[in-house]
Specification:
Blueprint lengths: L1 E12 L2 E8 L5 E6 L5 H8 L6 E8 L8 E13 L17 H6 L1 H4 L3 H23 L3 E2 L5 E2 L11 E4 L2 E5 L4 H7 L5 E9 L12 E10 L4 H22 L1 H6 L12 E4 H10 L12 H13 L4 E5 L21 E6 L2 E8 L4 H10 L8 H4 L9 E7 H9 L20
Parallel strand pairs: 3-5, 6-10, 12-13
Antiparallel strand pairs: 1-2, 1-4, 2-3, 4-5, 7-9, 8-9, 10-11, 11-16, 13-14, 14-15, 15-16
Amino acid sequence: MRYCGWVVRKVQVGRVLILEVSTSSSVRLSVLVFKPERDRDFYATVRDVDVGTALCFEGFPAEEQKSKRGIEYVVEKLEIYAKPLEPLPVDTAGKTPVLLDTRLKYRWLLARKPEERAIVRIRSGIIKAAREYFEANGFTEIHTPKIVAAGAEGGATLFKVQYFENDAYLSQSPQLYKQMLIASFEKVYEITPYFRAEKFNTPRHLNESWGIDAEQGFISSVEDVMKTLEELVAYIVNYVSKNYREELEELGIQPLQLTTPFKRLKFTEVVDLLRSEGVDVRENEDLSDYAERKLGEIMSEKKHYLYFIVGFPWSSTAFYYMREEDGIYTRKFDLDFKGLEIASGGQREHRYEKLVEALKDKGLNPENYSFYLEAFKYGMPPHGGFGLGIERLLMKILNLENIREAVLFVRDRTRLIP
């Protein structure tokens, strides 16, 4: 079999030459052992190989496996494709510690390390699992515009762009478009980037992130949407645990097995619970990051690692959430994972007149949303949906400390390159 990759470490032990090679076929390293009496055809070539060299080899696993860093191979064929022009700026063997800033700058190169490669492979697995779940449950994949005329959540967190003679914005969310499509499709989903111009410098926020969005029509209640979300998250986590054991082991992560349903908490219950712990929370505002973390500690003590918070106040939600009859609370929910919000969603307002009223109540001009409102004139069924953050879910599955570790090329307040 043929394997291709990059040399991350070169070691000489006596007359034996050892190359540790990172290949895309496995998260584990391939350890190529060359002995002068056995590998005369390759020995001289290997002596000139530098760390960073791109090569391919054919061979078979050695009968006696001595390496603790990977699988040892006896090489039968070797091809050198490219040598580095200068020493690598970071240690891809993982022997030298790397600061986070340097790690983020050279993530594309550090992905030769088994640990970094494992994170990327598991992220890919999350997306594979999501598609598998949606396709098995009757959802249609869609693609919505990323240059838009109006934001789904108002103008405060929009990136403005010049679109020929008009002002436009980078999309915060596919929210408005996926709702419009419920006029013709019962269930839709999209794996999509989000762009948010929030001036955060926290370990849990990015300005460009990726999410798994879904919307479903003809629902009986918000519970239909929550059921879809909890089934999806459980499917993804269990899929990763089953199919990425080698990667999880490389990262020292114990595989999770989730069962549904997840715990439900009313927003008013959360307020009372946090206040009893001395946390300052208000009944008409969303939870702070600190309050979320504290709630996570409380729920973890009760063995509830994933839990819904339901019934948020109207004053803290976007215009499209359906209000309860009292007008104070809504059918919005968050899904938290050990103190971090990984998803939000709810039942939407599908009645045209109520939507126009909601826009006005939020200080928005209905004329700016005319393209969206038109979809609600022609038989829009009751519907709801959610957005699930890929980086945040990955953070919690892998116990990452910073959301920037969950993405290859970071876009935050200070990073526009690489």
